[in-house]
Amino acid sequence: MEMNLSTLAKHFSDEGAAWGLVESMRWPDGPVCPHCGDRNRAYFIRPRNGQRTTTTGRVSYRRLWKCKACRKPFSVLIGTIFERSQVPLSKWLLALYLMSASKNGVAANELRRTLGVTQQTAWFMLHRLREAMRLGSMERFSGTVMADETYVGGDPKNRHESKRGSGKDGRGTTKVPVVSLLNAATGEVRSKVVANVNGMTLGRFILMNADPTGSTLVTDSFRSYGPIGEHFAKHEQIDHSAGEYVRDGFSTNRLEGFYSQLKRSIDGTHHNVSEEHLQRYVDEHDFRYSTCKMSDARRMQRIMEQAKGRRLTYRRVTAA
């Protein structure tokens, strides 16, 4: 089935259909036990009297399986971001689709109105989805790798007088720095919220995510990139202060575009993001930019695949 808003509509209002779709997305070759990893040896536990109910008597559409190997029961939600959620799976599917199809992200208040849930529930659902969107690959970039940094936060003049700092917009500001790497060949972006942009901090992040052997590092002329650039086979520094933005085909313009999209989302969709949760929003846009050539359906499938093993509790989120 081709997944788009038209074909998915019935799954947003039919809880039984939603469970069937999630099972087909997570288990295309049959059920897999999350406890022991056994495949295709589980059987469906049919409810008594033809309908499953909760302890309070409400109808439940939960589909329960039992593994023949370890003899433990399980459902498709065990070990995922959806585990132990009281929100109907049909609403989770709609939230997943909106996050997959939206270019600028989805605000908690927007999701609250769309799903008919509380603002707190919508906020937590979005953080769980961002956890699934976090790119988990640790393979280092190679070839041509672009590096740049930006600063996220409101205009200093709008802050309380005691928190305005220097009032600068760029380096030297009191805003929160974010550093990013972009693989020129694959288009994948990795970003991290950092405490500062000195040479040690930038170098640690770049070496963790890029293999300097035979690779070209492309940056602007910020002096903190100098020491780490010496580790690479080639270091191209573009001098923006001299009006230079492209040299011999090398530039950091793609990262500038990425930062523009990130800030449009934060300023236009969310309006305000706390420093404690900023990394999750950055992870979301890393995923969105890195999968920009995928269809909405493939992006939705990708998030579902990455939902495994990333259960996120409310205590973990609020303790950030």
Task: Quickly describe the structure.
It contains eleven helices and ten strands.
Order of helices and strands: HHEEEEEHHHEEEHEHEHHHH
Main beta-sheet strand count, sense and barrel state: 5 strands, mixed
Annotated CATH topology of one domain: Nucleotidyltransferase, domain 5
- Looking at the structure, what is the overall shape? elongated
Count of strand segments: 10
SS content category: alpha+beta
CATH superfamily of one domain: Ribonuclease H-like superfamily/Ribonuclease H
Can you describe this structure?
The strands form 3 sheets. A 5-stranded mixed beta sheet has the order 8-7-6-9-10, sandwiched between helices. It has helices at residues 5-13, 15-26, 89-101, 108-115, 119-133, 199-209, 225-229, 253-270, 278-290, 296-306, 314-318, and strands at 42-44, 52-53, 59-60, 65-67, 73-74, 144-152, 176-183, 189-193, 216-220, 234-238. It is built from 11 helices and 10 strands. The longest helix is centred in the last third of the chain and has 18 residues, at 253-270. Helix 1 runs antiparallel to helix 3, helix 3 packs across helix 10 and helix 5 packs across helix 9. It is α+β, with helices and mostly antiparallel strands and 320 residues long. The protein has a domain at 144-273: Nucleotidyltransferase, domain 5 (2-Layer Sandwich).
